[in-house]
Task: structure prediction
Amino acid sequence: MSTGPWPGLEGLEGRRVHVHDVVMRDGLQNEPVFVPTDDKVRMVDALGRTGLSKIEVTSFTSARAIPALSDADEVMRRIERVPGVVYAALVLNVRGAERALDARADELDLVVSASETHNLANARMTRRQSRAALREVCRIAGRQARVNLSIGTAFGCPMEGPVAFDDVLDIGDEFVAAGVTGISLCDTTGMANPAQVRSACAGLAQRWPGVELTLHLHDTRGMGLANVLAGLEAGVVRFDASLGGLGGCPFAPGASGNVCTEDLVHMLEAMGCATGIDLGALIDCAARLPGLVHHDIRGQVWRAGPATIRHPRPADFDEIAARAHARQRL
Amino acid sequence: MSTGPWPGLEGLEGRRVHVHDVVMRDGLQNEPVFVPTDDKVRMVDALGRTGLSKIEVTSFTSARAIPALSDADEVMRRIERVPGVVYAALVLNVRGAERALDARADELDLVVSASETHNLANARMTRRQSRAALREVCRIAGRQARVNLSIGTAFGCPMEGPVAFDDVLDIGDEFVAAGVTGISLCDTTGMANPAQVRSACAGLAQRWPGVELTLHLHDTRGMGLANVLAGLEAGVVRFDASLGGLGGCPFAPGASGNVCTEDLVHMLEAMGCATGIDLGALIDCAARLPGLVHHDIRGQVWRAGPATIRHPRPADFDEIAARAHARQRL
Result:
């Protein structure tokens, strides 16, 4: 199998698109096995060398709530810091933020759900309580670290159903005023469709100027990459994804994980976008993942290879061709 | 779990989109088991009542080449003909066309690959030989049946690599002149990307006026539904898909199957397109598929349910909410 150039493309060519991998947090937090700390550090270090713009390394939450990530402090301290890569960590409150800053996280990722029901189920706080706690985190983070606000269930709640997008905008406005460097719109359980994504994202760059806007999409109903395309068309250039598509949501049984990082990078590169990522190196990382989580992973490019791959002709091809050509000469 | 209305959408609302299912041909032809004729007839009959625009029922090829479809004549004769549904069959030559017409196929689906290597490997003929044989089929089909030409490897060949789109256009022009009712552009092994699909399809409605243009997409690298979106944006309103995403390609190991029919219909309906299809009935058909092919299927909506599903709140939700509200009142 040899590889050739990508076929001719148009439109998105040369656009710089940033890919963030969240497998170490959003992926591992749902896994029943504890991935050993050494393996976590090795995986983050390998991912850091692929050209990803950002890696969500872990989550500084209660070890009781998420035992899979109870080694957050040690992992964050031990990883190699590749220049240019943002090493982020999820925090839900001031205590988590202080631990993350102590461990030298480049970015604090704060989370609040647009749906009251999902926020209560997920963070055990009302939205009002979460917002107050996270404003306090913004204050203490000050100039020590970047702060990104992830707005969960931005495209729908698995328990409540449709979410008013005005609520999402209202939360975003509040935290842009509080000085966050970025806002992520999260389709927590894969309810978004491309028409909705395009409509939601149009105009956000004007509403929140200077703020990095990220789409965090799940592939629960197979629309993940179609939603990415819709986001690109609306001007979004930052996407979260999870190696091997690992992840899910405890409040939506049957929900598969995030958009798969290597499938996303493959599509972006195929369309001529500039991700700065070595797809082969990323596929190598994905290939190591089943060994860490002890089960198969969803990603498709990892299995089928990129579209530039050349497969050999069938063993009897020369015979078939010779017979066909002989008939043609008759 | 109850279902609510789709969230607010824009752009594609109300557009009539036709979905064709090819599982009985493209799906089953790769299966090692022979699905009993009675089961095939029952599945086609169930699919016919879901609102699909077209069903590719079988393939009139050599029973030796495709033993899984050796009962083509009997299946085509026995199925129920739901008014408005087109019952199509694949044929590669005059002999197959005669059998299909005898069995009352509404439409003959002819296949030639844009890539010479793929055509030789797949049809054991040069492209020139296939084109001559298929022109002869067009002649004998006359006014007895609709004729659709599927152009394989239209977006790339797994063995040759990139395919010159001018070759695709040239084949299309020839068969439009020969009087076909439709042309399908087939991404046989899932090499197409959305930028390529949009660029390829733009302008085809003008080039081939009055001819039904269909996209036949595979999901090998996860781009299937993103490619559908790109096709829709370029004005395509007809899509092939396979129930449960069943299918593959013998010349591209690791290639997964067609775009999954129920996932496609779910996305189209979520965006407000009018497919005329009862998604629940389609999901019921998909749920019966593993019993026929004796393995798991790929589709995601079948597993996760549509985005309109409401999941119950966690069992301890009322307690969590009461505690949070009590803290808030302090």
Summary: Chain A is about 40% helix and 15% strand.
